[in-house]
Design brief:
By secondary structure, the protein is mostly beta strands. 8% of the residues lie in helices and 42% in strands. It is an enzyme of class 5 (isomerase). It catalyses: [protein]-peptidylproline (omega=180) = [protein]-peptidylproline (omega=0).
Length: 159
């Protein structure tokens, strides 16, 4: 079976920048996604289209195609109580910021007693990154998965 729209794809990945590994699924479980439903970077999804089990793909993405360009005006002052991920914050730490649109990853720049200055750029903004992918399994999506817009099961969403 080839990867096409409404395929559920299970894959391993390694993310790197300038040859330095940043993260990988290889020591754990592969990930699962529903192809054609905007769950991957568009250029990664395009490279996976038509691939079969066992295929390996390497994709390098410019900042605009990955985590975005680095914005110089992305420093915001927020209440410390809205940060999660640690009990005590220090500059340079990555935090999750609770917003009305959901959680987003930020970098702590400066910390006070009640407020913190955070950089709202994604930690990989402005960086060219590479993904090494290996297709592990492919199957047709169920009607529920298509209706929900995401894959269900191990490595996907369970509900």
């Amino acid at each position: 079976m080839q990867i096409q729209e409404n395929s559920v794809v299970q894959f391993h990945y390694t993310l790197s920048e300038n040859g330095t590994e940043l993260e990988s699924s290889r020591k754990g479980s592969p990930l699962l996604y529903l192809h054609g439903h905007n769950q991957m970077f568009p250029k990664v999804e395009a490279e996976l289209t038509g691939k079969t089990v066992g295929d390996k793909v390497q994709v390098t993405l410019a900042p605009a195609d990955a985590y975005g360009e680095l914005l110089t005006d992305a420093i915001e002052s927020v209440q410390v109580k809205h940060l999660s991920g640690a009990k005590k914050w220090k500059p340079g730490m990555i935090a999750w910021l609770r917003t009305e649109q959901g959680e987003r990853q930020v970098t702590v720049v400066k910390v006070g007693m009640f407020k913190a200055e955070v950089d709202t750029n994604h930690p990989l903004a402005g960086k060219t990154v590479s993904f090494d992918l290996e297709v592990i399994k492919i199957r047709e999506a169920t009607a529920d998965e298509i209706a929900h817009g995401h894959a269900h099961g191990e490595g996907g969403h369970n509900h």
